[in-house]
Specification:
106 residues, mainly alpha, Methane Monooxygenase Hydroxylase, Chain G, domain 1, 87% helix, elongated, phosphotransferase system
């Protein structure tokens, strides 16, 4: 795998994961304002963006599993950090949205 290609994949993961995290945080803000439909829509958009990042990661894992060693550099590690942070943010956003809904119902 060419070094430039690895860089592009890493940047792609960072960009998609960053979008996913931003949308998840915006969904929390919408829920805080009582806009639950908007919050759930943003969270769904976040998950879609996260899937794009995850798909790139899966390609790398498949290559490695197939015997084509994927060199690990700081940029790739950074991209993985972004992806995992986005996934955690999505899970927490879902719970926070649920809590805001429960609070409004009482």
């Amino acid at each position: 795998m060419a070094e430039e290609s690895m860089e592009m994949i890493s940047f792609g993961i960072v960009a998609a994961a960053g979008q996913a995290r931003s949308l998840a945080m915006e969904s929390i803000k919408a829920a805080r304002e009582g806009k639950f439909d908007e919050a759930r829509q943003m969270l769904e958009e976040s998950r879609t963006a996260g899937l794009a990042a995850h798909d790139e990661q899966t390609k790398l894992l498949s290559r490695e599993a197939g015997g084509d060693h994927v060199p690990v550099d700081v940029l790739l590690v950074h991209s993985q950090d972004h992806l995992m942070t986005a996934m955690l943010c999505q899970d927490l956003a879902e719970e926070i949205i649920n809590l805001y809904e429960l609070k409004q119902d009482k």
